[in-house]
């Protein structure tokens, strides 16, 4: 870790530690909004009431499924930002994309809209247990 820190600082300066941070921040907002909204709607549907006190009476299975589906919906809704964050943070020198806009335009031109969702399947497999765990803390 120390060697990577030195390399990043030597090659890119202090700004290199924040590469990919803007799309990461942009990803958090829709992810959280979608996850909370979908979770509330699913638990309301499952419990038959929008009163959050009734959510505690849900079976563990329904609670698990609600959390998993909310996590999946949030992931699908915010995945393009995650993809852009990963691309910007992992590119070496020389940089292929100087900024998020350039990366977005290139992906859309070369791979189309579907290119924004490249790698979504393994991310969904990973998010299900994570989303369930978070909502059961």
UniProtKB/TrEMBL annotation:
GO terms for biological process: transmembrane transport. Solcar repeats lie at residues 1-45, 58-137. Keywords: Membrane, Repeat, Transmembrane, Transmembrane helix, Transport. It holds the Pfam family Mito_carr. InterPro entries: MCP, MCP_dom_sf, MCP_transmembrane. Its main location: membrane. It is found in: Membrane. One of its GO terms (cellular component) is membrane. The chain crosses the membrane at residues 21-41, 61-81. It is a multi-pass membrane protein. Belongs to the mitochondrial carrier (TC 2.A.29) family. This is Uncharacterized protein. It comes from Glycine max.
């Amino acid at each position: 870790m120390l060697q990577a820190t030195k390399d990043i600082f030597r090659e890119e300066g202090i700004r290199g530690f924040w590469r990919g941070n803007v799309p990461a921040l942009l990803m958090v907002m829709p992810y959280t909004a979608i996850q909370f909204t979908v979770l509330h709607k699913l638990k309301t549907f499952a419990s038959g009431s929008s009163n959050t006190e009734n959510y505690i009476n849900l079976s563990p299975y329904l609670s698990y499924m609600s959390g998993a589906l909310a996590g999946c919906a949030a992931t699908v809704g915010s995945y393009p930002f995650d993809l852009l964050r990963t691309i910007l943070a992992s590119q070496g020198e020389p940089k292929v994309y100087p900024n998020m806009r350039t990366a977005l335009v290139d992906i859309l031109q070369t791979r189309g809209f579907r290119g924004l969702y490249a790698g979504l399947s393994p991310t969904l497999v990973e998010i299900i247990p994570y989303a369930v765990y978070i909502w059961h803390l």
